[in-house]
Amino acid sequence: MIHDGHVHTPFCPHGSKDRLGSYIEKAIQLNIKGITFTEHAPLPLDFVDPVPEKDSAMTWDNLTSYIQEIQQLKEKYNRELTILLGLEVDFIEGYEEQTRKILDEAGPYLDDAILSVHFLKHNNSYFCLDYSPEMFEMMIGVFGSVDAIYDSYFKTVQQSIDANLGAYKPKRIGHISLVRKFQQKFPPTRNYDAAFHQLLDSIKEKGLALDYNGAGVVKPLCGEPYPPESVIKSALERKIPLIYGSDAHSVKGLSQGIEKLYTGATFSVPECLS
């Protein structure tokens, strides 16, 4: 494995408290050549986190410490492992300007970043689509159907690809099939191949890369990577760079799902390393 481009840290309020150094030591044991720490960027100050514990992202108070600690580890382990300082940035419909300001502030320090959709807007309310099966079921009642959630998700991911988020907009789009996290309990009634193809065409047109994420493999109601093999084959046909990400929220999560990824996939490294 060349690079794990999607790794979380103890700065994640909903993750483990495993030491940053433990992630690095485990990566070296696994013969991983490099990792990008991609903690959830702080949410816009006026955005109300819709999950009960309000723990979707790191706090603004922790951002400086996060940057400083990763920078120190980059120097300490520079002969053993390539460490990139990154963030996973949430695209939130209606908060594009605030997100641009976040990137303007943090961007100069970053080597790498991912742009992901976790929150969907319906009327004037926001919902975290991957929080739990119970929240997803509640969303079905609000949105009207599983298909309506899928439609909203693909529309929002398209908005994230098209959005002008400034000079530091992430170059990689995160887990574009996250809406399928609970698919075995809440399957859609329609086929969404065309929606995936449209996203891939836009990613190709914008010169972006794709997060090939192993976390879905270990989710009991998903059972496949984000995105699945059929979408990856279409991405390969378009020559879209694929960057493997474990989306690990603990040390044991490093390299998760790697055995279920499409064997014909060729992985790239983040743009700053190429």
TrEMBL record:
Q: Does the keyword Plastid apply?
A: no
Keywords for this protein? Amino-acid biosynthesis, Histidine biosynthesis, Hydrolase
User: Keyword Amino-acid biosynthesis, does the record have it?
Assistant: yes
This entry's Gene Ontology molecular function terms read: histidinol-phosphatase activity
Reactions catalysed, semicolon-separated, are: L-histidinol phosphate + H2O = L-histidinol + phosphate
InterPro entries (UniProt xref): Histidinol_P_phosphatase_HisJ, PHP_dom, Pol/histidinol_Pase-like
Specify the PHP domain's residue ranges. Answer: 4-213
The EC designation for this entry is 3.1.3.15
Top EC group: hydrolase
- What is this protein identified as? Histidinol-phosphatase
Q: Which organism is it from?
A: Alkalihalobacterium chitinilyticum
